[in-house]
């Protein structure tokens, strides 16, 4: 159970980090555009707490899975999967918002 829980928590952490990375790329591109990218920069600034929180929860889940026993593995797996779900959902929302036709 320990390896499976760790893999699920790791996948959740990677999904949450994907959201953080995408926000970083958006923010960098918006800053380079100057005044024309100010709206995008303001919107991404408001999304940072969600992305950071999801990443922190997923990382906590991964750390908890390193413990011994069934209960820590289950809790860590749930935290990792939950953080990954929030990160993935946030990433998809950002991609749909700024998708170019």
Mean pLDDT: 92
Shape: elongated
Number of helices: 3
| Poorly predicted regions | none
Helix content: over 70%
Characterization of the model:
The structure is a single chain. This protein has 101 residues and is an all-alpha fold. The chain has one domain. It is 86% helix and 0% strand. It is built from three helices and no strands. Helix 1 packs antiparallel against helix 2 and helix 2 runs antiparallel to helix 3. The radius of gyration is 16 Å and the shape is elongated. The mean pLDDT is 92.
Write the SSE topology:
Blueprint: H1 2-33, H2 38-64, H3 70-97
Helix pairs in contact: 1-2, 1-3, 2-3
Structure summarized in a few sentences:
By secondary structure, the chain is mainly α.
Looking at this protein, list some descriptive labels.
mainly alpha, 86% helix, 101 residues
């Amino acid at each position: 159970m320990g390896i499976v829980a760790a893999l699920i928590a790791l996948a959740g952490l990677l999904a949450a980090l994907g959201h953080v990375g995408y926000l970083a790329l958006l923010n960098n591109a918006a800053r380079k555009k100057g005044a024309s990218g100010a709206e995008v920069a303001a919107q991404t600034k408001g999304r940072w707490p969600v992305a950071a929180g999801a990443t922190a929860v997923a990382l906590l889940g991964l750390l908890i899975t390193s413990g011994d026993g069934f209960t820590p593995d289950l809790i860590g797996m749930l935290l990792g999967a939950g953080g990954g779900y929030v990160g993935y959902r946030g990433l998809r929302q950002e991609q749909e918002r700024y998708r170019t036709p």
